[in-house]
Design goal:
Layout (H helix, E strand, L loop, with lengths): L9 H6 L22 H13 L12 E5 L2 E4 L4 E4 L2 H4 L8 H13 L11 H13 L6 E6 L2 H16 L3 E5 L8 H6 L17 E4 L4 H4 L3 H15 L5 E6 L15 H11 L3 E5 L13 H4 L6 E4 L10 E6 H4 L15 H16 L2 H22 L3 E7 L2 E6 L9 H13 L2 E2 L1 E3 L5 E4 L7 H17 L1
Parallel strand pairs: 3-13, 5-6, 5-7, 7-8, 8-9
Antiparallel strand pairs: 1-2, 2-3, 4-10, 9-10, 11-12, 12-15, 14-15
Helix pairs in contact: 4-13, 5-13, 9-10, 14-16
The protein binds ligand PLZ.
Length: about 450
């Protein structure tokens, strides 16, 4: 095994791999400069001059290499990664099997466009996703590049299948930044502000949010269904789109029974039930898809992020007769299901199986819950600890209330980065700290990252 010294160039880093092709980055938090260091500051100045100010970055440092559970910056600082690039590098960054599959494919052909000359990895991936998504019925897939594009296409498919137009989404939902998905996303700032007009025929229903509404699942579902029936009408409704565990909206796990009741109503009324598993999918929650944990079999599942280990790939997978509804040529795109991305995705699915990453996600869940519940027990600003698998969050509030404390979330995330831990915020109110480590992170590093966070909370 080659030992990699942080501070190498990307080429040297690529060369310094294990015999299997995996990264040999030391799995430790190690700061060798202040954060950001001089090289990151230099790049930040160039970035300010050249990159749109409308594109933000949470971290003040620039990445040079990443693998296992660390991100190494251009100054040689090594950070524990509790974000996975927003739930993308679930199998690990530059995971050996993904690197090997993409390397083999990139040398063979980079692109033909599946709509022009098809290739086998697209077909094989569709076969695999049909097996892995919940529900024992005939399924088909279509591939795209981003999560937002998958959501848009799920809506197109549902409209073509039903001949209806309306779409129901939920409070706190996040579905993307394209025009249709901006309409579907709940939060105005920064996603929608000034970008209207938005697509019509999108309606918002109340979610089950146990920490804030205190309702049981069936009651929360009845509230949502009543609103849908009164304000939209089942006869006009093409699709209900819901994240089984809400991501950007605050890692909200609906009360048990909420999603099954909504799914059952959709079925009775010929409405296409779409699970947006862009963030929850592919082992993240300890199941292949979180819908399985909620006891639902969606008609369509949108998949992206973790499915291809960082290469841009998204999918709509679902009931064959629904996915087949649009006219031939109605779905597609130049890069949808690009061969590098499909090769990466097949390697990701193999890695999840070979390394039993569903079990690993549940082990990570145990560590996250243990550490965060211990924190909550001594810090009254932690109002709620929730999530599934390696997708867990704390909601920060003013002690003894449910009043959001966004300033604290921001302060903790900023200070954690200064101390070598990448942690992200989320939530409609910006008061949620979320933990999404890659499943390739070791227990030692995970515990070390939480020791740092404990220190940050104590000092904040
Ligand atoms: N659906 C459930 O989580 C992406 C984006 C954050 P794209 N979430 C992270 C940001 O600030 O842009 C997401 C999601 C769910 C859809 C999407 C959209 O996926 O690949 O970013 O388009």
């Amino acid at each position: 095994m080659t030992t990699l010294t942080p501070g190498l160039s990307p080429q040297e880093t690529a060369a310094a791999t294990t015999p299997q092709g995996g990264p040999a980055l030391p799995q430790e938090i190690r700061l060798v400069t202040e954060v950001p260091g001089p090289r990151s500051r230099e790049l930040a100045a160039r970035r300010t001059a050249a990159v749109s100010a409308a594109v933000g970055s949470s971290m003040p440092f620039f990445a040079q290499a990443a693998g296992g559970g660390v991100v190494v910056d251009v100054d040689g600082n090594s950070f524990a990664d509790l974000g996975s690039g927003i739930a993308v590098t679930t199998v690990g960054n530059a995971a050996p099997a993904v690197v090997a599959a993409v390397t083999e494919q990139v040398a063979r052909f980079t692109h033909t466009c599946f709509m022009i000359t098809p290739y086998d990895s697209y077909v094989e991936l569709a076969e695999r996703l049909a097996e892995l998504t919940p529900g024992d019925f005939a399924k088909k897939s279509a591939f795209f590049t981003s999560g937002a594009e998958a959501v848009e296409n799920a809506v197109k498919i549902a409209r073509a299948h039903t001949g209806r137009q309306a779409v129901v989404v939920f409070d706190h939902a996040y579905h993307g930044r394209t025009n249709l998905t901006m309409a579907m996303t709940a939060k105005n700032m920064p996603y929608k502000n000034g970008f209207g007009p938005f697509a019509p025929e999108v309606y918002r229903a109340p979610l089950s949010y146990p920490f804030r509404d205190g309702l049981d699942g069936p009651t929360a579902a009845a509230r949502a269904i009543s609103l849908i029936e009164k304000q939209v009408g089942a006869a006009n409704l093409a699709a209900i789109v819901v994240e089984p565990v809400q991501g950007e909206g605050g890692f909200i796990v609906p009360a048990p029974g909420f999603l099954p009741a909504i799914a059952a109503w959709a079925k009775e009324n010929g409405v296409v039930f779409v699970a947006d598993e862009v963030q929850t999918g592919v082992a993240r929650t300890g199941a292949w898809f979180a819908s399985a944990l909620e006891g639902i079999e969606p008609d369509l599942v949108t998949i992206a992020k973790g499915v291809a280990g960082g290469l841009p790939l998204s999918a709509v997978t679902g009931r064959a007769e629904i996915v087949d509804a649009p006219v031939t040529g109605g779905l597609g795109g130049t890069y949808g299901g690009n061969p590098l991305a499909t090769a990466a995705a097949l390697a990701v699915l193999r890695t999840v199986e070979d390394e039993d990453l569903l079990a690993r996600a549940r082990q990570v869940e145990d560590v996250l819950f243990r550490r965060l519940r211990a924190l909550a027990a001594r810090d009254p600003r932690v109002g709620d600890v929730r999530g599934r698998g390696a997708m867990v969050a704390v909601e920060l509030v003013r002690p003894g209330t449910t009043e959001p404390d966004a300033a604290l979330a921001k302060k903790v995330a900023t200070e954690a980065a200064q101390r070598g831990v990448i942690v992200l915020t989320c939530g409609t109110d910006g008061n949620v700290l979320r933990f999404l480590p890659p499943l390739s992170i070791g227990d030692d590093l995970l515990e070390q990252a939480f020791d740092v966070l404990d220190g940050v909370f104590a000092a904040s």
